[in-house]
Amino acid sequence: MEPTTIHIESSDEPADIQLTFYGNETLGSHTYNGYVRFLGMTGGTVAVAVKVKATINHIVAGQPLPPQTGGGESFTMPLWGWIVIGIVVLAVVVFAVSRVLHIEVRRR
């Protein structure tokens, strides 16, 4: 991948970047479905990491891509779904702790 390091000044505006991925002809033509992780560093320490879902077609001259297999798009839970799950888990923990504390108070 090129460039390996990108310097972006702090700003309220988004910054466009352009990356070039290089493949290896010995791997043949294939499709990569996964993530590319960007690490935001400051002073040699990772301050933030951003994972971006990516589909990369690695095409070797004279070799077609193999047919896609699988069920297509995978399910990704939206943010509100994670918030609801978090609230439910928090409510269960609070209920369980209150029950334990209530039992402890009654025993004394």
Q: Any overview of this molecule?
A:
Strands 1-2 form a two-stranded antiparallel sheet. The chain is elongated, with a radius of gyration of 24 Å. The protein is about 25% helix and about 25% strand. It is built from one helix and two strands; from the N terminus they run ββα. A hairpin with a 2-residue loop joins β1 and β2. It has one helix at about 80-105, and strands spanning about 30-40, 45-60. With about 110 residues, it is of the alpha+beta class. The mean pLDDT is about 75.
Spatial separation of the terminal alpha carbons = 66 Å
Radius of gyration: 24 Å
Kindly name the structural category: alpha+beta
Tally of DSSP β-strands = 2
Q: Report strand order across the widest sheet.
A: 1-2
